[in-house]
Amino acid sequence: MLVHTRTRRIKNTIRKAKKQLTKTKSKEKSIPWREAFKEEIEKYSEEGLMLRGSRYKNSLTQKQVAEALGISQHHISEMENGKRTISKQMAQKFAELFHVNYRKFL
């Protein structure tokens, strides 16, 4: 799958979440993000979405992240899609790369 298609999917997911948020704004001020991304969490895993979101926020490709960490791009893809768990050591490497707390990826 092309990177452009994945980016479009992420943008569509964000757009859906914003629509859901505007629908609930009249009732509440906000909704929990886990509720807004419920379908995606079930499909990919919460840790995978965090990794994908961090990568997207920093405008990095899977290949660039893999090269920076010295692992294969295939491993990054499997982690994002919930097929491979993220170890504590790998979470710490991601945290260092993206300048966030490592617990975000666990």
Helical proportion, percent range = 55-70%
Q: pLDDT below 50 for ≥5 consecutive residues: which ranges?
A: none
Gross morphology is globular
Taking the sheet with the most strands, its summary is: none
Q: Number of helical runs? A: 7
Gyration radius, to the nearest Å?
15 Å
Encode the helix/strand succession as letters: HHHHHHH
Please tally the β strands and state the result: 0
Short description:
The chain is mostly helical.
Topology readout:
Blueprint: H1 3-25, H2 33-36, H3 38-44, H4 46-57, H5 62-69, H6 73-80, H7 88-98
Helix pairs in contact: 3-4, 5-6
Please give a structural write-up.
- The chain has 106 residues and is mainly alpha-helical.
- It is built from 7 helices and no strands.
- The two termini are 26 Å apart.
List keywords for this structure.
mainly alpha, 106 residues, 7 helices
